[in-house]
Amino acid sequence: MEFRDTAEEAAFRAKVRGFLDAEFPPEVAERPVEWGLFNASGTIVNPNIREFLRGWTKKLNEHGWGAPAWPKEYGGGGLSVKEQFILAEEFAWRRAPRPGGIGHGWAGPTIMTYGTDEQKAEYLPKIISGEHHWCQLFSEPGAGSDLASLQTRAIRDGDDYVINGQKIWTSGAHGAHMGILIARTAPDAPKHRGISYFLLDMKTPGITVRPLVNMLSSHEFNEVFFEDVRVPRSALLGEENRGWYAATTTLDFERSGIGSSVNHQLITKDLVRFARENETGRANLAANPNLRLDLADAAIEAQVEGLISYRIISMQDRGEIPNREASIAKLFSSELDVRLSVLGMKLGGLHAQVNDREVHSSMGGRFPRFYMHATTSPIGGGTSEIQRNIIAMRGLGLPRG
Ligand SMILES: Cc1cc2nc3c(=O)[nH]c(=O)nc-3n(C[C@H](O)[C@H](O)[C@H](O)COP(=O)(O)OP(=O)(O)OC[C@H]3O[C@@H](n4cnc5c(N)ncnc54)[C@H](O)[C@@H]3O)c2cc1C
């Protein structure tokens, strides 16, 4: 593949850098850890961050970069796959946030593909403006990796559907205005063919959101219960009983994982800097010679992750749909998350366990949170075992396990 930018791509990259130079506030750019922009842990450290993010979203929207991947007709930036990649890469190097989440990444693209004109007009602008936050109501206590076993039911009653059942691990349901829900509409049909996809107003009577507090003492996901929740037929997305296919559609916007790869390269740089500055102190390289080798491994792995991202984007740029490659990227990236967080804990010594930004902590006290949060990376979005199964079957031609 060609790593160098074409003249047009270089001009676009310069434009993005110019925007970040001019608009990304120096007080945030210079202190990303304090602003909670260090990793994907969702940590909101600075109380002003919500206000900052609101203003930032507005600025991005002025440039059409609030949803850069979406077609212009739906209010997006209409950027090419390569331009989206460059934007994501440059933002990641500055640790500048980009709008994301279930609304941008899942609900919006699925509504564009399967929605009616009314659904598109109603929901897409509110995702871009940040007015609506969405959650994903897919997993159930008995249906995670084997999602098609889900038991939540949505039974037709006149012009409505009546929903009963339970979802679990629903990230952000407590702050969501809307949810994408898959539920069983034909209980007697073969399991993949009796599922429908709904756009659910989270204020509908009968929905109870109960917090699940994780080991960081942080409320990120929830259990969601449905008791005779009545929704109109207009909440159905696409055809009845065809929801499984909408839920599993690969949406071909840029999904190279470049943001995560750059983040890991930045973390590795921070770790190397800390090791150099504390060679005879907290890192104590003489007493722990293997740390030098672990740092060398980390530097290599972060670069390998970048090359996987480049491979995916070059496929997408040629109009191909990455399949096993996407599984390789997810697997490698989420497991590198774990390895880097472990390395940070080892490098910082006992001080690395201090979870605050006081003088006793190492590296701003960021690693205990990263370490605990990284345990979720190989689970959310499809576990490592499931990714390995896909690679074994679709990549290596091995029989189903
Ligand atoms: C941080 C986080 C956020 C999440 N947010 C959401 C959300 O917003 N909405 C949502 O719907 N869900 C969400 N989830 C749920 C997530 O999608 C599921 O946890 C995931 O799909 C795994 O399902 P499970 O937890 O039921 O585990 P299970 O599927 O029960 O798996 C248990 C173990 O068995 C292994 N296993 C299962 N099947 C196989 C197989 N065929 N071969 C080999 N090994 C197998 C798994 O790898 C795992 O180790 C979130 C999860 C996390 C961790």
Helix content: 40-55%
What does the average pLDDT come to?
Answer: 90
Query: Structural class of the secondary structure composition?
Result: alpha+beta
Order of adjacent strands in the largest pleated sheet: 1-4-5-8
Uncertain spans: none
Distance between the termini: 34 Å
Integer count of domains: 3
Question: SSE string, helix = H, strand = E?
Answer: HHHHHHEEEEEEEEHHHHHH
Structure in words:
Helix content is 43%, strand content 14%. It is an alpha+beta fold and 401 residues long. The protein has three domains: 93 residues, Acyl-CoA dehydrogenase/oxidase, N-terminal domain (Butyryl-Coa Dehydrogenase, subunit A, domain 1, Orthogonal Bundle); 111 residues, Butyryl-CoA Dehydrogenase, subunit A, domain 2, CATH 2.40.110.10; 138 residues, Butyryl-CoA Dehydrogenase, subunit A, domain 3. Strand 2 and strand 3 form a beta hairpin. The longest helix is centred in the last third of the chain and has 28 residues. The radius of gyration is 22 Å and the shape is globular. The two termini are 34 Å apart. Flavin-adenine dinucleotide (FAD) binds next to strand 1 and helix 12. The site of flavin-adenine dinucleotide (FAD) has 19 residues, from strand 1 and helix 12.
List its salient traits.
401 residues, four-stranded mixed beta sheet, Butyryl-Coa Dehydrogenase, subunit A, domain 1, binds flavin-adenine dinucleotide, Butyryl-CoA Dehydrogenase, subunit A, domain 3, globular, alpha+beta, single chain, 12 helices, Butyryl-CoA Dehydrogenase, subunit A, domain 2
